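Worked example 4.2. Below are the chains of a multi-component assembly; read each line carefully before continuing.
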Amino acid sequence: MRKEQCAKKGENENREEDGKILPIAAANQSAFVFLIFVTVIMLVTLYLALKGLRMPAIRKIAGMDAIQEAVGRATEMGRPVHFSPGIAGLATDTGPQTLAGLTVLAHVAELTAKYKTTLWTTIRQAEVQPLATEIVRQAYMKAGVPDDFDPDKIIYLSGTQFAYASGVVGLMHREKVAANIMIGGFWAESLLFAEGAYQVGAIQVAGTAQTSQLPFFVAACDYCLIGEEILAAGAYLSRDPLQIGGLWGEDYGKAIAIILVAIGLVLSLAGNNILWSLLGKLW
Amino acid sequence: MSVAIRRNVPLVITFIAGLLVIGDYYFKTPATVEFNKLVSNWMTFVNVASTFAVVIGIGTLTRIHVRRLSQHKAGWYNSVVLLIALYGLLITGLVLGEGKFTAHPIYTYWFNNLYVPLDSTIFSMLAFYIASAAYRAFRARTAEATVLLISAVVVMIGRAPIGPAVWSDLANITNWIMNIPNSAGMRGITIGVALGVLAMGIRVLLGRERGYLGPGA
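Applying the procedure described above to all two chains together yields the following structure tokens:
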């Protein structure tokens, strides 16, 4: 029964008007070609970086550099640092933002371990808790202070958005955090966190790829990572040539997108919709 | 377990799982039914495994608050409220409601009269926080901040009933700001994010992006 349903679903998505079944649904064909094309470009740039044939420079990201300043300030004040990897689940389309947040958490935990500063990590998605705990544990081990690691400082507050938000704001006020670092997927709770941390005088570094929340972070935080900047965190912090090679390939993808937008603009003004038609079914 | 196995096994699982999900997204034909079914079962397994993580989360939360209670730390009475609410509702829904949480009147009463108002209260605080954040952000210190201030004031007045009542074209100006410059900026960020996610996905699949496995991974 399930097999029949699955087959029917596949046929409905891929079936043309004349009854012909396409291997890839018409709406996804151009996206598939673009995916392959950009992937090939990125693999080439990764290869060039691996062989050392060309090593692109990575631009300065002020928000990322400010993390060390924020942790340093908290250390001087003798107050804790708060970190949130956002509220996005790992098995969703916003999951990469959480992964980016965890990458930054590894860096923050290394710094707090080195400076012997308390780090509070608050979690909303239960599946992120074991990952975050392991990351912080490894950071303390790497810094040579495994005994300073306290698993109770990586705290799952609630799976519900505003219950989690109230827990975070409460923790900020009780612990008087001196630095608040938020990198990941955030929704309506973003401003609650930012204003909560502002009220206790914390320096704030925030970043998200949620366009609807970016204005709040820009308005309320000291440093803001915009969109793709959080996804480049791994490459920026590790300075791994291969990861930077990936960013280089991404830039080519952006160049292609800009060229397509410009060509589409000109063609649309000329009344030609050939690019539109190419964005759907290709074969 | 050797370091190599601990390091490589998650990367291999990530690579295979990533390819399965990408393949399932693009290929849905009668010839790939078994493959689609496999991925569907895999995703169900992932969801079930994720749900089990809630047990770990609740365990941590309980451990922390029981410790606060036993050590009589400042605000220990809040821990009492949390534990009663957590386990009281859990037992009510799971045992008395026989697993159908909202079917039991006590659970529904607690939910509707405690949880819902508290949730709405937290959400409503946003209105005040928006005002205070806007006050700080809209101070015209630089040219960019001045543009932000002017456009924000125009949009705020244009979206309020009084704006178009005073000057009918204000609504058109507001719509132009939202639909042209604002949309263009947002779309630019969205395209960048999409490509960033793609690049990150490739790095994760190839095992180059390992930050989520911890420092030094």
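Take a moment to check your reading of the output against the notes. The mean pLDDT of chain A is 89. The first strand of chain A starts at residue 81 and ends at 86.
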